[in-house]
Design a protein that fits this description.
With about 130 residues, this protein is mostly helical. Helix content is about 55%, strand content about 10%. A three-stranded parallel beta sheet has the order 1-2-3. Strands 4-5 form a two-stranded parallel ribbon. Helix 1 packs across helix 3. The longest helix is centred in the first third of the chain and has 13 residues.
Amino acid sequence: MTAFVDTNVLVRHLTGDPPEHAARATRYLASADELLLPDLIFAEVAYVLESFYEVPRAEVARALRAILAFPAVRVLDEPLLLRAVEIYDAHRIDFADAYLVACAEATGVGVVASFDRSLDRLGTIRRDEPR
């Protein structure tokens, strides 16, 4: 069966919280034929792990890479998501900003309109601050 997978299934599997849901999520993930994972849900996993569970950035990045390596998981653009994880892991920016930078790089646009000065540190894109 093919199904879209929600954030809570992935988070339960990764955190083991609560144990009953975690076991069910893990069984489901292991037996699934094809799980479609939208980018928004992938980003929400990062947000929930970091903000609610206070998982350190490096561990969040490892968890995100593990999700992408799951045999049944299908995403639209795996190289883009892997690049976003790489940026997130290497810099002190949130996953949404890392994804935005990865998109700017991948499309060749190379410019991000933002008030967020932390993007200036990356060096791979140019930040254009609205005036």
